[in-house]
Specification:
Length: 383
């Protein structure tokens, strides 16, 4: 059996191998770079050292005054009420025939549906009865008048016959007027014909055969049996913020865009501006006329409206330059030489990805567009 090396030899051998490994490791790695200088926070200002890589990540733009500005407001399309009619029944009954379908073009007075109604039967019967009573009263008056002229009938009977004739005439006029109001007459068929009061297109129908209908069902928040309108003309109902109430007026041109037609701009014109602010939404109700000759737009479609107006005493900046902290808006201004100061703003949304700054910035200031949140984090971590 061979003898083992002495213990001291093994220890020297291990130490030599360990030292060689450490030297090899040190030779294969570079020395670590010195730590980068950190940003300095001074009150509301962040200052970066010269050559800081973080400055290169910040993008700024110069604020320039505008000669005019555009605002965008939201709204929806609706039927032109001067060319539309919600049609419901004036009597209770049951729908027995539907004579018009959605999309049908109808003329003024054209029948839309027929309703079987006992109330109509009663009106027809009253008209017939009033006519018969009037004929009897007229014949009685003529006979009494003839007898009175012959000296046979006293004046009292003549006066009574004359009064009865006047009563019968009045009742006949009332019954006939009621029949004309319902558009019925002649035979007693208990059928009421629902007609369109104007020419147009049946754009809505909520009537089905056998449906029981009553006049009290006609409510503004309930669908009408028929809606007839001219779909080539629409209204755009716009909600203008209270702060812009003085910027809109009748006759002003407006450009509409709909989500269903993103590439199309629809020209419209404001025709009415409300005289009061909606207390619930704090918006001004504005109405514009819209030409829809191609019938691409639909009622109840949401739209956004762009209005051009002279620039106010305000500056417009990209929305990315402004951030909300608590209840206030802020932005960072580039002051040169790696210094960025935080400014508290009075601002509001201006649409199209912009903010309207009413106070806190001046024309010529350079605001940080990319990196504002990074600066806020540095500012917050040092305060």
């Amino acid at each position: 059996m061979p003898s083992l090396p002495p213990l001291s030899y093994l220890r020297r051998r291990c130490a030599a191998l360990l030292l060689a490994g450490l030297l090899a490791a040190c030779g294969s790695h570079e020395r670590p770079a010195p730590p980068a200088a950190e940003a300095v926070v001074e009150g509301e200002q962040v200052r970066f050292p010269v050559g800081s890589q973080q400055v290169a990540a910040l993008r700024t733009i110069e604020i320039r005054p505008q000669q005019a500005e555009s605002i965008r407001i939201q709204g929806r399309l609706a039927w032109d009420e001067t060319r539309s009619a919600r049609i419901d029944v004036p009597v209770a009954g049951r729908l027995v025939r539907i004579l018009a379908a959605p999309g049908d073009a109808v003329k003024a007075g054209q029948a839309l549906a027929q309703i079987a109604s006992p109330e109509i039967g009663q009106a027809q019967a009253e008209a017939r009865r009033a006519e018969a009573d009037y004929r009897v009263a007229a014949e009685s008056y003529a006979r009494v008048q003839e007898l009175h002229q012959a000296g046979v009938s006293p004046t009292r009977e003549l006066q009574a016959a004359e009064a009865e004739l006047a009563r019968a005439r009045a009742e006949r006029q009332r019954a006939f007027a009621r029949s004309r109001l319902y558009g019925v007459g002649g035979d007693i068929d208990q059928v009421y014909t629902l007609r369109s009061p104007l020419a147009g297109v049946v754009v809505e129908r909520h009537a089905t055969p056998g449906l029981e209908v009553r006049p009290e069902q006609a409510q503004p928040d309930q669908p009408a049996l028929f809606v007839v309108s001219d779909p080539t003309r629409l209204w755009a109902r716009l909600d203008v913020p209270e702060s812009l109430a003085g910027a809109v007026r009748p006759g002003q041109a407006v450009a509409l865009r709909a989500g269903a037609l993103p590439e199309r701009v629809i020209a419209a014109r404001i025709v009415h501006v409300s005289d009061f602010i909606d207390p619930a939404t704090r918006t001004l109700k504005v109405r514009a006329d819209v030409d829809n000759a191609e019938r691409l737009l639909k009622a109840e479609m949401f739209v956004s409206a762009e209005l051009s107006m002279p620039a106010r005493a305000a500056l417009t900046v990209p929305a990315d330059a402004v951030y909300l902290l608590g209840e206030h808006y802020y932005a960072f201004v580039d002051q040169g030489e790696g210094r960025y100061a935080r400014r508290r703003l009075k601002a509001e949304e201006a649409g199209f990805g912009t903010m309207r700054v009413l106070a806190g910035l001046q024309a010529g200031d350079r605001v940080v567009v990319d990196g504002a949140l990074l600066l806020q984090q540095l500012l917050g971590s040092r305060q």
